[in-house]
Write a structure and sequence with these properties.
Shape: globular
Helix content: 25-40%
Largest sheet: 7 strands, mixed
Number of helices: 12
Bound molecules: flavin-adenine dinucleotide
Length: 394
């Protein structure tokens, strides 16, 4: 769009909103990000940043060497009794895709995105600024303080509990319970390094997936081997912990490790050891939905981005990465569209099919990762071992 820089208002400074700010600021637009939180919390577990996302971030000025990241060697799949099934190595990822696949502490990633944004003169991040209402026709938003801020276009990246999604979509669509809960755990890596049977998990940065009936665990090292990140996903039906009520859905709570130790008592020694090391952790109900009818308000001036429009199960480690692609596509559409409404239409039409496809595939993986012992599992394992022979571990 051959135009003067746009005044863009972004709601939410999660990973999605921050990436949108960086992408649009790189094109010279004037960006204000409104975040309801008073500060960026220094908490969270690990996040995997695939090259599709890291390459875009680099183009927006993000310098990953400023944080202690790990470059992933690939995905390793092991059954619940410890039998190795498949390695999918990432040794050529940097050459093939132009950027590495990283493991990063979430707080480090958010801080890095914030720091990069703050270095851009055309980005302002306003904390403690909850958006309470919108004018969709002549784009403006009202903050809890009563202040009204006007812009040319509003990008709503307010997460899975988006307050305005139903209005933009044109009908209510609540995220649905996927049937699974996720435990997100961070442990110090030193005890693992001190154990000859466990040290390889920290020294070799693979994302190891242990797969068993109605549950799986994923582990990978963080912060240059200081921490080990563990995500455990189980079905509600097989979860031995206190059930989480619907009100608690996706919100966190700290509990003891007894339920995990009991739940995984028959699994291989590596998983049992990781469960025994666990202290407090975050427990979430995993929710998603298939797809929205509309990502853009009929006014053509307000659009959704990130988990607000495509929450998905974390089984492909793609939620935040898809928000990077949203941000890049949005920036390109604003360059190419003849007007803001046309640009937002292009953005939606290019992003919806891909995010829907990926979200549906995470549901397929849910069955595949949690299969019971028996014929279905034998077929899965046979397929994985066949792949392993074609694609041997280096
Ligand atoms: P959010 O992170 O929810 O941010 C929304 C922001 O909006 C928040 O800061 C909130 O405070 C703010 N906000 C809300 N309402 C308002 C308001 N009215 N006014 C102002 N501000 C407001 N993705 C990956 O790519 N790789 C992974 O390895 C990965 N692992 C995952 C593991 C688990 C267990 C889970 C659950 C998810 C994982 N994801 C992963 C997905 C990823 O975490 C999300 O897709 C991503 O964080 C979504 O970012 P977002 O900015 O869209 O939403």
């Amino acid at each position: 769009m051959p135009t003067d820089p746009l005044n863009v208002l972004i709601v939410g400074a999660g990973i999605g909103g921050l990436q949108a700010a960086l992408a649009l600021a790189t094109d010279g637009h004037q960006i204000t990000v409104f975040e309801s939180a008073k500060a960026f919390e220094n908490v969270g577990a690990g996040i995997r940043v695939p090259p599709s996302s890291s390459r875009l971030s680099q183009a927006w000025g993000v310098d990953f060497s400023q944080v202690k990241q790990e470059v992933s060697r690939g995905n390793r799949f092991v059954d619940w009794k410890g039998k190795h099934l498949l390695d999918v190595p990432f040794f050529d990822v940097r050459d093939r895709y132009g950027a590495p696949y990283y493991f990063i502490h979430r707080a480090d990633l958010v801080n890095l995105l914030v720091k990069t944004a703050e270095q851009k003169p055309n980005v302002t991040i306003r904390l403690n600024s909850r958006v309470v209402s919108y004018n969709f026709e002549e784009p403006s938003l009202e903050l809890g303080s009563g202040e009204v801020v006007a812009g040319d276009v509003i990008i709503v990246a307010d997460g899975i509990k988006s307050s305005v999604r139903d209005v933009i979509n044109g009908r209510p669509l609540a995220p649905q319970d996927t049937g699974d809960v996720a435990y997100r755990i961070l442990v110090p890596a030193q005890p693992l390094l001190d154990d000859p049977n466990m040290a390889h998990l920290v020294k070799n940065p693979w994302a190891v997936h242990w797969m068993g009936p109605e549950g799986h665990a994923v582990g990978y090292p963080l912060r240059g081997g200081e921490l080990y990140n563990i995500i455990i996903d189980v079905t509600h039906a097989s979860d031995l912990g206190e059930p989480i009520s619907n009100d608690e859905q996706i919100w966190k709570s700290a509990r003891s490790n007894a339920e995990l130790v009991e739940r995984f008592k028959d699994w291989c020694p590596e998983v049992r050891r990781l469960c025994a090391m666990t202290g407090d952790y975050l427990k979430w109900k995993l929710a998603d939905f298939d797809q929205l009818d509309n990502w853009v308000h009929p006014s053509g001036k307000v659009a959704l981005l990130g988990d607000a429009c495509h929450p998905m199960m974390p089984y492909m480690a793609q939620g935040a990465a898809q928000a990077s692609e949203d941000a890049a596509t949005l920036a390109a559409a604003l360059r190419e569209g003849s007007s803001i409404p046309e640009a937002l239409k292009i953005y939606e039409s290019q992003r919806k099919p891909r995010t829907t496809y990926i979200a549906r595939n995470t549901r397929v993986l849910q069955d595949w990762l949690h299969v019971y012992d028996g014929p279905a599992r034998d077929a899965r394992d046979k397929m994985m071992q066949f792949d392993n022979e074609r694609n041997p571990i280096f």
